[in-house]
Design a protein that fits this description.
Isopropylmalate Dehydrogenase; 12 helices; about 375 residues; 2 domains; two-stranded antiparallel sheet; 12 strands; alpha/beta; binds magnesium ion; ten-stranded mixed beta sheet; binds 1,4-dihydronicotinamide adenine dinucleotide
């Protein structure tokens, strides 16, 4: 039987609630598709930090490094100064595990309410590939004349051919198993040096993917096109900062925080990839069962695709989408069922195989993209 080792980091607030629901769905997927997982729960987060003062120790890093994948809930607590846990755990994990890209599907499922008037599922199915290690987020920068009126802050953006190429190559590869259309999103008319590097990488890598059509959109224009005509896009590749911004806009299109999923992918197999809903620990609703587990379940689906369980991945996606479509509201008391009840409902739908099949499932496309023997990175 195929067996995968998982590190599970439920984290804080609603993190453990949505993670538990996702694990219930994982149980059902294993049962139906005949694989198993060995799961190790890692208690990182506010409680652990307040008890021990520890964030991400070398020992924990080493043990996480042996997992095939990491399933992550959310981190952050009003009991800890903002930034300590988020930077010390999430960002640090992405860095140490060399998770080169952040992958964010923007797909509106049938029956899910969107704030964009007239938007239909047929028009909203794209994936944003965000470079996850550099750009403006390399955490360098400097200030001189601090504390005076002459203070100067310099915050540079770092773009290496190496990191841009691996992100762009992944994006082409994904586009080639989808609708074969890749858009570069940048601001090449102002950020000319970084822009030229990205543009040159697009052309160079593009020679390996002659059947993928390419396109370019400035990031500001992207903020207009994305809500109005998302059907223009199949795969979008962009840098760390622009990606951070446009993916939040993307999440709005697909129904918001409770629904959106993400994967932080290590592309060279040196360390595990990590999958997480995009929302935070939501301390305002923690403990009430009001968190929507869909984002966590769809992240689980991405994880399964990444592990090569393409069929299970597609089934998790369609079961989650079917349950979402039946909810009276996407969050809070109005959902009409608790987080865990929804997890059980998704699991039952998966077991019955009763959900309509989703065509072009990103979750199963990932299995094809990650699974190929000819992977070049
Ligand atoms: P948040 O995403 O936790 O919550 C924002 C709003 O969305 C809240 O009203 C919350 O109730 C609602 N919400 C979040 N997830 C939901 C779900 N699954 N279903 C229904 N409603 C949901 O963002 P916020 O409040 O800015 O941050 C809270 C904490 O989480 C902070 O400590 C923040 O730093 C941290 N955070 C952690 C992230 C992570 O672990 N990757 C990402 C974003 C924030
Ligand atoms: Mg963000």
């Amino acid at each position: 039987m195929r067996r995968h080792t998982l590190a599970v980091l439920p984290g804080d607030g609603v993190g453990p609630e949505v993670t538990r629901a996702a694990l219930t769905v994982l149980d059902a997927a294993q049962e139906r598709f005949g694989f198993s997982t060995a799961r190790t729960e890692v208690p990182l987060g506010a409680d652990h930090y307040l008890q021990t003062g520890e964030l991400l120790t070398d020992e924990v890093t080493a043990s996480l490094g042996t997992a095939d994948a990491i399933l992550f809930g959310a981190i952050g607590s009003p009991r800890v100064t903002p930034g300590i846990l988020e930077r010390g755990i999430i960002l640090e994990l992405r860095r140490r595990m060399q998770q080169a890209i952040n992958l964010r599907p923007v797909r509106l499922y049938e029956g899910v309410p969107t704030p964009i008037a007239g938007l239909t599922p047929a028009r909203c199915d794209l994936v944003i590939v965000r470079e996850n290690t550099e750009g403006a987020y390399v955490a360098q920068g400097s200030t001189v004349h601090r504390g005076t009126a002459a203070r100067v802050a310099v915050q540079e953006s770092v773009n290496t051919w190496y990191a841009v190429e691996r992100a762009v190559d992944f994006a082409y590869r994904l586009a080639s198993v989808r609708r074969k259309r890749l858009t570069l999103c940048h601001k090449t008319n102002v950020l000319v040096e970084a822009g030229a590097l990205w543009t040159d990488v697009m052309s160079a890598v593009g020679e390996r993917y002659p059947d993928v059509e390419t396109d370019y959109v400035h990031v500001d224009a992207m903020c207009m096109h994305l809500p109005v005509s998302p059907e223009r896009f199949d795969v979008v590749v962009t840098d760390n900062l622009f990606g951070d911004i446009v993916t939040d806009l993307g999440a709005v299109l697909q129904g918001g925080l409770g629904v959106a999923a993400s994967g932080n992918l290590n592309l060279d197999g040196s360390h595990p990839s990590m999958f997480e809903p995009i929302h935070g620990s939501a301390p305002d609703i923690a403990g009430r069962g009001w968190a929507n587990p869909a984002g966590a379940c769809l992240s689980l689906g991405m994880m399964l695709g990444h592990l090569g369980e393409g069929e299970a991945a597609a089934a998790v996606e369609s079961a989650t989408a079917a349950v979402l479509a039946d909810l009276p509201a996407l969050a809070g008391e109005g959902m009409g069922a608790s987080t865990q009840e929804l997890g059980e409902r998704i699991a039952a739908t998966l077991t019955e195989g009763s959900a309509p099949t989703i065509t072009g499932s990103l979750m199963s496309q990932l299995a094809r993209v990650m699974g190929g023997d000819d992977v070049a990175w």
